[in-house]
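Would you be willing to look carefully at the protein I have copied below?

:::
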Amino acid sequence: MNSKQWDYFCSFRESFKQKIEEWQVYSDELEHILNKINDITKTPAYPIETPIVYNKNLDLIKKDDEIKLIVIGDNPGKNEQMKINNSYLVGQAGKLADNFFKNHPELKIDFRKNVIILNKTPIHTAKTNMINYFHKFEEKNIINLLNQTQIWMAKETANLHNELFKNSDESYKPELWLVGYSELSSKGIFTTYRKTLLDSYNTSSSDFNFLESWSKVFVYQHFSMNRFAIDLKNFQKTHNFQLNDSLSQLGEFHKNNIFLN
């Protein structure tokens, strides 16, 4: 990263840490609700160590790292919330993502070095769809927290992408991948994130138009259950595109379905 990119990234990282600290006041209440959800859904018992998770891998990013991609997952799962990890996409889905880039060296992206990994919310659940129980239980504090976190993450992620984008050279413009197509739909869990993200990119500043960086935002199926790879493979078979073209065309197709419908 150049100096402008690095300074903004550091500012984002520090702000993110501070917000996580602010949100920790809900940890005990959230842990109680998560245990209740796990009992009802007969989820095998596991220790809930970090109900609201900061991605410690952000602290490993250095100024001389070249950031080519921001990947946005859903929310921290069992592996991500363990104190020994406290990182995003380190479970099975993360391994599939890592392997995808290792199996495609032509993309020249190291998933653990050239990628900033964020989520739509830092709130942990064993499975993403368990977030729906916050509404079923009418847990107003946690529902409010869920909305707060989505709004903050969407706004600040859009700003981060825009700053990295506008301060990069012409040889490579960082992309932003939203993985988890279904939960961004009109009936999905992350409608607040979707709306806030779109509104953020539609906001123009005096020196730069967010719509330019919006052209490098793409939407895909999640890495979990190999859905990302299967969807991409089927798209390539149908259209007979090379990998880079398939990624951009598929990502734009899903993006239009999610944000224009």
Summary: The chain has a mean pLDDT of 95. DSSP finds ten helices and four strands in the chain.
